[in-house]
Amino acid sequence: xxxxTITILLVCTSALVLAENLGRTIHVNRVFSEGASTAGxxxxxxxxxxxxxxxxIDLSTEGGKAIFSLVLxxxxxxxxxxxVDYTKDSSDKCLVTGFHTQ
Length: 102
What we know:
Elements: H1 2-18, E1 20-21, E2 28-34, E3 38-43, E4 55-58, H2 62-77, E5 81-88, E6 94-101
Parallel strand pairs: 4-6
Antiparallel strand pairs: 1-5, 2-3, 3-4, 5-6
């Protein structure tokens, strides 16, 4: 029972550590695409929590394609981005997992 409790605690804690949220409103400044499956954007506001101050998007997934579409819409329409969920890799690159515009 003790091992089960510790396992559940570790799984819940690691999930909380891996997912992060900017917690502030940003605006899309520049959008980029690299290679066959990577895209991203530079916000107007500074992102010290992310390497090079930018957010990456994985285009190899349907969710990543949907997020990139929302980024392009936000950039074109000038909409504020009210929430960005992301994970960080070992080199502090931020990978967008959720994107909410106003």
